[in-house]
Amino acid sequence: MICNEQPLAATNFLYDFDKVTQGIVKSILNAQKLSTPGDFISIPDADQKIHTMDPLTAGELARIRRQFISYMKSHPISD
User: What UniProt keywords apply to this chain's record, in alphabetical order (predicted)?
Assistant: First the structure.
């Protein structure tokens, strides 16, 4: 997924990253309410769409989000 926003500053990276990922999860949940399985879901500020065959629950998305944040903490992006 490619975002069109400025890179996140190192000083508040985790806070900003947390907010961005929360927004993505909310977008996915809202889009799933209006779509049918197999549709492509658009994410704001992203170039690619998500193709979901089965709807993801809030719990599943929260788990994936936590895993991704944990990965980013252990594999930081160099400036």
Answer: ATP-binding, Nucleotide-binding
Question: Which residues 6+ apart lie within 8 Å of 36 measured at CB?
Answer: none
Residues 6+ apart with CB under 8 A from 50: 28, 40, 41, 43
The pLDDT of residue 79: 58
Q: Are 53 and 39 in contact (CB under 8 A)?
A: no
Higher pLDDT, 12 or 65: 65
CB-based burial of residue 73 (10 Å sphere; 0-12 exposed, 13-18 middle, 19+ buried)?
exposed
Q: What DSSP assignment string belongs to 9-61?
A: PSTTHHHHHHHHHHHHHHHHHHHHHHS-TT-EEE-TTBSSEEE-SSPPPHHHH
